[in-house]
Amino acid sequence: MRRSMKKAISLFLLSMGVSGLMAQTNEFKIDVQQTGAPIQSTMYGIFFEDINFGADGGLYAELIKNRSFEFENPFGGWTPFGNVTIQTKSPCFDKNPHYARLSFNKELTGTGLDNEGFKGIGIKAGEKYDLSFYARTVTNGPIKFRINLVNDKHDIYETKEVEINGKDWKKYSVVLTPEVTEAHSRLRITMLTQGTADLEHISLFPQNTFNNRPNGMRADLAQALKDLKPGVFRFPGGCIVEGTNLATRYQWKNTVGPVENRPININRWNYTFPHKKFPDYYQSYGLGFFEYFQLSEDIGAEPLPVLNCGLSCQYENDDPNENCPVDKLQPYIDDALDLIEFANGPVTSKWGKLRADMGHPASFNLKYLAIGNEQWGSLYPERLEPFVKQIRAKYPEIQVIGSSGPQAEGEDFDYLWPEMKRINVDLVDEHYYRSPEWFLNGAKRYDSYDRNGPKVFAGEYACHPNNRENSFLTALAEAAFMTGFERNADVVHICTYAPLFAHVDAWQWRPDLIWFDNLSLVKTPNYYVQQLYGHNAGTNVIPLSMQNEPVTGQNDLYATAAVDKKTNELIIKIANTGIQHRKIKLDLNGLSGGKHKGTVTVLHASDLEAKNTICKPDQVVPVVSDVELEAPAAEVILRPLSFSVYRIAL
Ligand code: AHR
After folding, report:
1. pLDDT tens for residues 218-240?
2. 362 Cβ partners below 8 Å, 6+ apart?
3. End-to-end CA distance of the chain, in Å?
4. Would the CB of 498 count as within 6 Å of ligand 1?
5. By CB count within 10 A, which of 356, 398, 579, 608 is most buried?
């Protein structure tokens, strides 16, 4: 046993207060006939925020950084050569007015622009890429451009030519089909004709996007989301909803309509962590609210947008001028009402028409709306209340979600929960990024929650040790904790792990569910835990106990049971956090006598520090086997350090 592994295991065991290391028989009583609370179809969802280059440079398939020359440094991401300037006169797009002017007068260097992409441009051999831009000539006559893909050794491996003509802005495009696969290529545009021309919104998009959507998502990353079978999709944040100040808050109306004319916004994760500064991090809003709704539909999840409540990030500033006064909140509330119209309204309504014009006349069937992210103090309820009143009055069918603040307990949390009850929100958003010990102790968290108040939405949660790395240890602790979600499905209606994505070369925050580079991705052990819950949610909880108690850590075990009425199956989930095999006797009350076939899926690693990486993505993956349980009394043996999900035909 490696030293580090020994250390990890002993820490883990200490933290759990393990009673003994001898295997012993544990007896679980499961009553299949006592169908309990329904498990909401929204129960296991996902949370997306544009952090760690999750949107631009990640899920959003655009490959050009700063395609509109709108960064504070308009050449950010670009290397101009020859005579290139930035202009704003008579722009092509009024909300993104900067463009590049290129003049070529036989300069020895040539005149043109290189784009570096997001830590390079990921290109796959044989795939087709649409290069497009808007252009006009300033001098008379047509102007020819050469378009190249160049690798990091400056070898050129794709060349096309495009000729532009005319003094009015027009869109030009050409298809690039590289013959090599390269994670760090660059796009190069060079003038071949003498003269002057203007270029704007230079875009390079793979034709292969998820569900072949134009302006779509990177296929592999979006597929990984769909493969989780998420019940709900929370977007677009997180702290970026709040903004560092109100001017930089997320405003959904800036993210819809023609993609070229969505005004960009600085991303707060550009500068929030000084030790992880990314001056090139902006939000292009190419992935905007229309695309979020469409993606929710494409992956089969209920959309769950979060809107600013009139407060900017309370961590970042305490300037009262950065809060919208309560009596001036109406534009913020209108944003919420208009969003519901954008998602669900008839095509004859103002915002419903925009949705239809963007290609989706049918309603997106929005059911949930969160107001505020991690807010605290009386500033929050006094703003939330008018939102709730107006949303209820106009759209009583919408479930409104309030926040209990950034902490999972303590003064702010204790103040906000009763306030949420008073305001009568439908669900309360809780956030916790905590240690393995906290997660294991928290398996009982919801057993004592008020059954008559708002429901729980665990909107951001992830387990992490001090180094915040994703590992099997954290995944196993989350699996154990989540048995508490399921057992309390009458109270917990939605949970979404956070955050989703991180670029291996450009991350600010961990842990994260999926890591990626420009060509591939890796699913963390935590991903597989979420997937096991998502695919094995069941429809109703059923009682599971050991010595008349729920199984919340006795003998290192955490367990819960459900039935799936649609498939007529019993589902048992058991986390064994100890280093011993555990023998479990299952008393299956209500199951007809005899053998019942099924499967068991096990996520296991003998090293708690085990990780999946881009180079070794399969260190911790679930393994499925057939299983047969004898009713009414069966015996199973659990592997040490494992999460097992049994699915048994009833
Ligand atoms: O997920 C990263 C951040 O964590 C979110 O933006 C915020 O809501 C939480 O503090």
Report:
1. 999 999 999 999 999 999 999 99
2. none
3. 41
4. yes
5. 608
What's the pLDDT tens digit per position in 344-370?
Answer: 999 999 999 999 999 999 999 999 999
Which of 376, 509, 514, when mutated, tests ligand 1's pocket best, judged by the most ligand atoms within 8 Å of its CB? Answer: 509
Q: Identify the architecture of domain 78-206 in CATH.
A: Sandwich (2.60)
Of all protein residues, whose CA lies closest to atom 1 belonging to ligand 1?
499
Q: Examine domains 26-37+541-649 and 78-206 and report if their fold is the same.
A: no
Closest residue CA from atom 9 of ligand 1 = 238
Q: pLDDT tens digit string along 415-428? A: 999 999 999 999 99
Tell me: the pLDDT tens digits for 122-174? 999 999 999 999 999 999 999 999 999 999 888 999 999 999 999 999 999 99
Q: For residue 387, give the H/E element and its range.
A: helix 379-394
Q: Is the CB of 419 under 6 A from ligand 1?
A: no
- The set of catalytic residues is 374
Cα gap 531→219, rounded to integer Å: 18
CA separation for the pair 353, 341 (Å, rounded): 9
541 vs 562: CA distance, rounded Å: 4
Decide whether any atom of ligand 1 lies within 6 Å of the 511 Cβ. Answer: no
Alpha-helical regions (H) of 424-524: 436-441, 472-487
What predicted TM-score, i.e. pTM, was given to this entire model? 0.96
Class in CATH terms, 26-37+541-649 = mainly beta
**What's the pLDDT at 338?**
99
Q: Classify domain 45-61+210-243+268-331+355-537 by CATH number.
A: 3.20.20.80
Pocket flag, ligand 1, residue 550 (CB < 6 Å): no
Q: Is 47 in the pocket of ligand 1 (CB under 6 A)?
A: no
354 alpha carbon – ligand 1 mean position (Å)? 30
| Domain residue extents for the chain | 26-37+541-649, 45-61+210-243+268-331+355-537, 78-206
pLDDT at 383: 98
